Every structure is written in C-alpha cells, then in structure tokens.
Cytochrome c peroxidase
Amino acid sequence: MKRLLTALIIFLAGTGNGLAAVWEKNCEGCHNGTVAPTKEELLSQHPTPEDFLDAVKEAMREEKMPPGLKYLAAIKELFGRLPVKKAHAENSHGKVHESDEYSKYKRYFTPLPTLPPIPADNPLTPEKVKLGKMLYYDPRLSRSKIISCNTCHNIALGGDDNVKTSIGHGWKTGGRNAPTTLNSGFLKVQFWDGRAPTLEEQTKGPIQAHVEMNATPELVVRRLKAIPEYVELFKKAFPNDPDPVNFENVAKAIAAFERTLNTPNSPFQRYLLGEENALTKEQKEGMKLFVEKGCIACHNGPVLSDGRFHKFKSNNDTGRFRVTKNPKDKYLFRTPQLLNVALTAPYFHDGSAKTLEEAIRHMAEQELGQKLSMEEVRKIKAFLESLTGEIPLEARTVPILPPERQ
C-alpha cells in the first residue's frame, strides 16, 4: 500500500491542469505493469464495465487500491458506458425491488478523492512530505520552543485540540476554535474567515501570530539553518533552490504534508462506493434527514463543505468583515467541513457547542428554522459519526526530530 501511495504522489506531482484523458491523468501512473496491472492487462481480465467495477471494489476492500479515485469516469472512458447498476433483485415472490431504499440519496454526496488538488508551484514529493511532517511536529518553530503545529492541530485527536479556543504563546488565546487539519487540502479557503486562499498562506499565519507561536520568519530560518540535518532535508526537498532553507519553503513543506492528511475508508465513504451494509439503518435514516432537512445545501462536496461564507451570529466576532471591511460580510463564516466531525468537539467558530447533539439542534433552529425531535437529532448524529475515516498511521506517528548542533 505504501508503495502504491508513493507512486501516486510521484505521478500526481508531475501532472498539470491539462485536459488529459482520465486514465492517463489519474490511473496510468500506478497501472504501469510494475505497481499495478496495465490497462491492457485489466481489459483482458475484466472485459465488461460491470466486471471492471467489481474488480475495483475488491481491490479497495483488500487495500490494494486507494478509495476515492475517479474510477467510474475511467470505466466510462475505457468502455464507452458506465456499469449497469445492480440496484434491483428478485424477492421471494419474483417481484423486483430496490435493494437499498436509501441509495437514491447517494447522488447528493461526493466520495473523497485520494488526494486534494496539488498546486503547480508546490508539487507533492516524498522528500517534501517527510520534511513537512517534521516541521509540523517541531516546537522549535515557535518562539517559546514548546508549541508546534501539532499542539493545536493534534493529528491523533482528529486534527484539532478539543478545547474551546487554543492556548498559545504566553497562555494567550485567539478567540476562535481550531479547525481540523485533516482533509484541509480540499477546502477552497482556509481559516474561519477565509483570509488565506491556500494551505501555504495558512501555514504562515499561526507561526507568526502573537497569540499562537509568536515567531518571525527570520527567527524560524535562523534556527533551522543551525540544524545540519534540516539543511540537508531542505536541499533534498527543494533541489533547485540555491538557498532552500527559507520561510516560503517552510510553508510549502508543511502544506505538502497537510495535503496527505486525508481520511479514507469511513463507513460513509465505503457506502458511497457500493458497500451497502457499511451504514446501519439508523445512519441511513440520518443521511436521509440530513438531505431532506436541508443540511446538504451548505454541507456538500467531498468534505461536506461548500467553501462559502454564511451568516452565523454567535457572539461579537464579526467574521469575514474583519478581513474585507465590507459591511455585507459581517458575521459571515466559512462552512466547516464535517468529515471526522465526531472527533472535533467543541463546535462552531467560538467553540460554543460542547456536543454534537447541541450543534445539530442549534444549526437546525438558527440556519434552517426547524426544531428537530430527539429521535431526529440522534439519527443525524449517527450519520455524522459514519463520516469518521482512517487517520493515516504514518502521519500520526511522531517523528524523531533532528538535534541542534552541539
């Protein structure tokens, strides 16, 4: 599996935004006859779209193939049509019935791809990801040398710190709840107020914020250049840069690592990909309520966030207005993603909702104008719990950090 993902990273690093065919752009990097069978070999073994789809699902179950790839688009390209859905079966009376009455709600959701979009100016490489992981965990990027990115965005805890507002330099707090870094590469903008358009820009913020890590670019670079192993790691990660240990590259490396913090194989992900029994009946009923009550209007896309800004007045925090100074943007906040939401209490930009049930009730009343019954809240909560995926083991394994020069 590690070999496959490494090959995928290398392949995606070399792709651009051209209009290449689906197979060439998304599949051929691994299906080269070495890592995985070639296209010709696959077509000879699986001559119909239905056979091909069954093989894809089996490969994902056996973890030989990552979930979330554009496999249906590839199948349509290879065969000229999509597989015929096996959505019906004969019951004991010979009548045809739908095998899963909730499957019609799948069309409102998008499976999580293996990787988020990779920017052309920061291609993903194993060397850069390795460096970025070490920097993410290294408290020496903070002025006090005790706060790392992982302090407030603890990968093992769900990508955040499970407190109302994070404690930073000098025991200060910034007033907003720390969003998870898991799957953050799929977000259209970063921070609650959208002030950073990219992960690279987002990374620079907490390092310099006086209420967080309270460092400066000059301080960070000086410390890293004094550590011989880091100097060598930067050279490997940025081989074409004559002076690779710089603050821009610190941000690029951490952002590259964060783009690998994706959580596949949740029960809901498996359900979307065809495993009908991956969800319980209660979770499926919660999914139905999630759609029919209107939650899907804002919580859509691969991470269940539309990436847009919506009014949410909880306290005196004016939200996006602090960035744009446009009165129309007062109390607007970016829609939070919902993947792994069961792990990231408390909720909202101010951490004011302590439990998932409280958050569900509040959102229904304030945003949708509906009062949910206890049973409805329980079912929606069960659905949201099905969004918990697998945090990559490699990412949550604390690295051995290089020592300073003696």
Remarks:
- The two ends are 39 Å apart (CA to CA).
- The chain has 17 helices and four strands.
- Strands lie at 88-90, 96-98, 309-311, 332-334.
- The chain has three domains: 2-86, 126-262, 267-385.
